Amino acid sequence: MAIKERLRARKRLFWRLMLPAGLIGLFLYGLPVVRYLETFIPMGVCPSAIMPLLKDNFTGVLRPWARPEVLTCTSWGAPIIWDGTFDPDVAQQEARRQNLTIGLTVFAIGRYLEKYLARFLESAEQHFMVGQRVVYYVFTERPEAVPHVTLGTDRWLRVEHVTREPRWQDVSMARMRTLHEALGGRLGREAHFVFCMDVDQHFSSAFGPETLADLVAQLHAWHYHWPRWFLPYERDTRSEAALSSEQGDFYYHAAVFGGSVAALRGLTAHCARSQLRDRARGLEARWHDESHLNKFFWLHKPAKVLSPEFCWAPAIGWRSEIRHPRLLWAPKEYKVVRN
Ligand SMILES: *[C@@H]1O[C@H](CO)[C@@H](O)[C@H](O)[C@H]1NC(C)=O
Ligand SMILES: *[C@@H]1O[C@H](CO)[C@@H](O)[C@H](O)[C@H]1NC(C)=O
C-alpha cells in the first residue's frame, strides 16, 4: 500500500513539473532553437515489406530506403517523396512520353497580386515542370494588373476574372468553388494534371513530374513531426471538416495540392459543398479551406504525399532532413495583404 501511495505521489509531482515545462515550451516555441527539438519526435519508418511495392506512373522505382531518418511511405502504401528517393530524369522522360499538359493555378487577389505574383511566376518559369507543356491559370479581380512574364516555349498564361469577396476568409472560401468551375471548363479540357498553389511563395529549385499522381497532398512544414492528436484539425463536431482525436493521418498544407482533373473535380466539389453546409449552420472551420482539405484527404487518401522539402518555410529554421527545398514561403505579412 505504502509503495502505491509513494508511486502516486511521484506521479503527481511529475505532472506538476511537466505542466509548467509544457507551457514554457509552448511559449518559447517561437524560438527556432526550441522548435528544433521537435525533430527528435520520430516520424516513423516505412515498413521494409512496403518499400519494394512503392512506385507510381511517373517515378518508376523509388528508393525509400535512401532516407532512413524520415518517413518515406504512408500506411496505405503511398510514397512520401523526399529528395534522394526518386530519379528526376525518369519522371521527366515518362511525363514527356505521356505528352502531358500540366496546369498550375494561383489566386492573386487584392494586394497579393503586386506583392507576390511576379516572383511566383518568374520562379515557376525557372523551376516548375521545366521541359513539359505548362498552362498557368491566374485568378484575379484585376486582370489588367497581372505583370508581364516572359514564358518559355510550350508554356501559356491564362488570366481568369473573379469577383473579389469582401473578407479574406471568404476569398479563401471561394477558391474551391472557382477551381471546381475552372476544372469543369477550359482548364479541365487543356490539362491532364493540375497543381493548385498559394501565391505567397516562390520556387527555389526543380519541381518536376516526380510530384504528379492522381491525388497529391503536401505535408505541412510546421506540423510534420507533431503527434496526431495535437494537429490543428477542426475539432468542432458540428463542422463538416471535423476530425476526432483518433482520425487524421497527417496535417496537409492547402498551399500545394494537385492531381488529375477528375480527382480534383471531386476534391473541390467536396470542399466547396462542406464549406457551404458549415456556413448555413453559421460555422467557419478553424483553418478555412485547409480544414476541409484535411477532412477530404482523410476520407480519400492521396496517391502521393510530398515531403516538406517541396514547400518549406525558412522561418522554421535549419533542419538537416530538409535537403533541397523546392518552394519557399514568403514571410507572412497578413497586416499588409489582408486589409
Ligand atoms: C501532344 O499534345 C499536344 C497538345 O495536347 C498535341 O497538339 C500534340 O499533337 C500531341 N503530340 C503527340 C505526339 O501526340
Ligand atoms: C496511374 O495511371 C492509371 C491510368 O491512367 C490510373 O488509373 C492510376 O490511378 C494512376 N496511379 C496513380 C498513383 O496516380
| Unreliable parts | none
Number of strands: 12
The major sheet is characterized as: 8 strands, mixed
Give me the secondary-structure category: alpha/beta
The CATH architecture of the largest domain: Alpha-Beta Complex
How much is the average pLDDT? Answer: 90
CATH superfamily of the largest domain: Spore Coat Polysaccharide Biosynthesis Protein SpsA, Chain A
- The total of helices stands at 9
| Main sheet strand line-up | 3-11-9-10-7-4-5-6
Spell out the helices and strands N to C.
HHEEEHEHEEHHEEEEHHEEH
Could you tell me the CATH topology label of the largest domain: Spore Coat Polysaccharide Biosynthesis Protein SpsA, Chain A
Q: Indicate the CATH class of the largest domain.
A: Alpha Beta
Task: Please indicate the percent range of residues in DSSP E strands (runs of 2 or more).
Answer: 15-25%
Radius of gyration: 21 Å
Cofactor: Mn(2+)
Binding site for UDP-N-acetyl-alpha-D-galactosamine: 107-109, 112, 198-200
GO biological process, one term: carbohydrate metabolic process
Transmembrane segments: 13-31
